[in-house]
Amino acid sequence: MKSTLTFLTLLFSMLAYSQGEMDSFTNYHQNAARTLLESKQGGLVMGAYGEVHYEQPFGNNTKYNGDMDAERMVLLFGYKFDNKTSFITEIEIEHIKEVYLEQAYLNYQAKPWLNVQAGLLLIPMGLMNEYHEPTIFNGVNRPTIANALYPSTWREIGAGFAGNLPSAALRYQLYAVNGLMSYNNGAQLDGSKPLRGARQKGAQVTMTAPDLSGKLNYYGIKGLDIGLAGYIGTTESNLFDEVNRDSISQMATADSSVIGIQMIGLDLRYQAKKFQAKAELFYSTFTNTHQYNAFTSEDIGSSMFGYYGEIGYDISDLLNINKRFVPFVRYSEYNTHNTVNSDMAANKAYDRTVLTTGISFFLNESFVVKADYQNFKSANNTNDHQFNTGIGFWFR
Fold this sequence. Notes:
By secondary structure, the protein is mostly beta strands. The chain is about 10% helix and about 50% strand. The protein has 6 helices and 18 strands.
């Protein structure tokens, strides 16, 4: 906790110091879907993004095979029926052979500040879940927190409201969605990445009661965008299907297959001239984990916590080139066994830090070449190293 407070103090001090060095920068961030949604073009609009990676572990007096992968290729389609009604969808091909629908929703602008949305929606938790096009983030891979603490890309079926209030410098999102699937003929949760395997992704979804997800962004300070997100609900289980309500044993078994989730996330993006900074912080608590672990023999903790901070600087002027060249460094620390039930010991392997440093070289604003080095450590004294490089693009 001391290192967390030190990190946050230094980051906010740095942001305050550089506030007087601002130049033009928009606080209104665009991802691929929003770009299509707000296009002035009527009818059909299209876009695409993708990335190809090479990842090479090394060190520890051990030989490792490298991994090359067409990580993802995504096709985006939007259709504007009229000035108020639009449809957005993303079709993603992962690792060449896996096809997913990443989002698909109808947007109706009831008021300039009020959009009604329904369909397969991205959960507004963290930066990477909604802003994951490869030209947007530094590093070949997304931050590890976006894999372990919130399961990017996290999408579920639901409906809700979203909008922008320019006079208050606020953006908001509020959705009711189906819950994560904690048990489907077997446990879907685990202690290392608690929620990742539980995403239903819109495929034959089970829901007994909706979960709530929301986010509020403030962008009233030039160059700074701060987001506060929350999620609350209960996971789903196929053991509740056709269960006899009068059967105490059946209901007790089904009740043991779900957990309660309460999650809060804080994120910020900042830019001053060629300087850029990002940070995310998450805290989640889980209830009913004692019963779930006893029933499934899993090791879900009762809370998890983590954060990262990243800074980068465009040195194209120093190199006398007209293409953006951004060295960056990112430090992550997270623990999915932040607290555990009294009947189990915390797994030190789940208390991890990751140092990532590298470069993003933009051949143009739609195509980026990336390379980085990562050092993975955990409290049980593992120390792993990896070199990554890759390319990414996004266009419409």
